[in-house]
Amino acid sequence: MGQFIHLTSADGVKVPAYVAEPAGKPKGAIVVVQEIFGVNSHIRNVADGYAAAGYLAVAPATFHRVQTDVDLGYSEADMGTGFGFKTAVDALAAPGVMQDLQAAIDYARKGVAAGKVGIVGYCWGGLLTWRSACALSGLSAAVSYYGGGMTTAEESARQPACPVLAHFGNKDHWIALDTVEAFKLAHPEVQVHIYEADHGFNCDQRGSYNESAAKLALERTHAFFAKHLD
């Protein structure tokens, strides 16, 4: 069970973050980047899971600059509300939310001494994870789950500065499979896995949850982080 703390971004803004600590000395740290539903129970559970695996987990509230204390479910109404917050964050002047993610990385690095920091994100968080891998400092590995917008030509033009693993579903109506294939061709250095699954297949609170795909993706993610962080 973790707790909320406050990070301080480069511009002085205090950003809440859910922090889950392992039982012993952390073998590394992982920044967990939310979907469009806030640092809700699912994202806190994800962070708790990484803590149970031996990592310091930090989940910053990436909506904080436009709306505080966002904790949504997965109804159609919640999706509309979350998309509105995402649109507002995307409209912020640069660096916007990226400085909050950098603050989370910096906090995580201090918490693991000589350890390394990875980042994992889901949906919108998957896109932010890709951008972080390409633009932020202090990361040793990045894992994106069905990053919405990540496979556009504009995003694909970015170049990652750390190893990246990406998970996609072949039934995802938000991310066309042909754009995933184009991303794979543009980035042979990125490990891309495609599952028989829909968008959001990792979240057991969504109707699109796919237990077998989620289990396999998590096994691959843990192996990837073990290779680059432990």
Describe it:
The protein has 230 residues and is α/β, with parallel strands linked by helices. It has a single domain, classed as Alpha/Beta hydrolase fold, catalytic domain (Rossmann fold), CATH 3.40.50. Helices cover 37% and strands 20% of the residues. The chain has helices spanning 41-52, 76-90, 98-111, 124-135, 153-156, 177-186, 211-229, and strands at 3-8, 14-20, 28-33, 55-60, 117-122, 141-145, 164-169, 191-195. It has an eight-stranded mixed beta sheet, sandwiched between helices. Helix 5 (153-156) links the parallel strand 6 (141-145) and strand 7. The longest helix has 19 residues, at 211-229. The mean pLDDT is 96.
Short description:
The chain has 230 residues and is α/β, with parallel strands linked by helices.
Low-confidence segments: none
**End-to-end distance:** 22 Å
So, the CATH homologous superfamily? Alpha/Beta hydrolase fold, catalytic domain
Structural domains: how many:
1
Oligomeric status:
single chain
Q: Tell me about the largest β-sheet.
A: 8 strands, mixed
- Shape descriptor reads globular
- What is the CATH class designation? Alpha Beta
> So, CATH architecture?
3-Layer(aba) Sandwich
| Count of helical regions | 7
Mean pLDDT over all positions: 96
Instruction: Indicate the structural class.
Output: alpha/beta
Spatial ordering of strands, largest sheet: 1-2-4-3-5-6-7-8
Estimated helix fraction? 25-40%
